[in-house]
Amino acid sequence: MDSPRRYAHAPSPSTASVMGRRRAGQLARTDTGGALEAARACPDAWYRVQALASVAAHAEQRLVLPILKEAAREAQSCHDDYGTVAVMAWPLRVAFERGLPGFAEPELGKCLTQASRIEPPASQAYALETIWSACFAVDPRHAEPVWRRILELCHPDHNWRAARLYLHIAETLDGRNPGAAADVIRAMAPGKARSWLERRFKLA
């Protein structure tokens, strides 16, 4: 029997990345140039992308798109497919918030395509949860294509993160519109996780 496949963990971030992201966030409202300098100095792509997104959130409108495009390019330097997809939640949220669907929608499509390559499946579920949450926070309609991809890729019984993903979506929708969790649960593949959610939301 083949030994179980092992997946490399993302390397621990450098102190410079942690501090650089914090500095970029502190400067973003008042000093776009300084914030960009701090963001670009983050050695780790994950932190660099988040920092750039924080700058884009507060930059003059004419600068937002170039900064977001830079963030999307930098996301490709993440350690693996999980990192590239998950970290795009930050630029995507800013793009939708700043009224740039022409950037956000194609980039979201790329993320949803790349999501099929994420291993292990638990990381795939977590990346899609991150993207879904970012899109939904701006407008639930932005999260619809993510939800369709979740149904395609994430069987709720295959790992605990997938089960938690469906729980998170059900709770979020139900909190905004009581009773909406039923739609999530009806869309799930039959199995233990679905039965558990039916009991939790008193649908069984």
Structure, explained:
With 204 residues, the chain is mainly alpha-helical. The chain is built from 12 helices and no strands. It has helices at 15-27, 32-40, 45-58, 61-75, 81-87, 89-97, 101-114, 121-138, 144-153, 160-176, 181-187, 192-200. Helix 1 runs parallel beside helix 3, helix 3 runs antiparallel to helix 4 and helix 5 (81-87) runs parallel beside helix 8. The longest helix is centred in the middle third of the chain and has 18 residues, at 121-138. The termini are far apart. The model is unreliable at 1-9 (pLDDT under 50).
**N-to-C SSE string, H for helix and E for strand:** HHHHHHHHHHHH
Q: Fraction of residues in helices?
A: 55-70%
Number of strands: 0
Number of helices: 12
Assign the structural class, choosing from mainly alpha, mainly beta, alpha/beta, alpha+beta, or little secondary structure. mainly alpha
Largest sheet: none
Give the low-pLDDT segments. Answer: 1-9
Give the averaged pLDDT, no decimals: 94
State the shape: elongated
Q: Tell me what portion of residues adopts beta-strand conformation.
A: under 5%
Radius of gyration: 18 Å
**N-to-C CA distance:** 40 Å
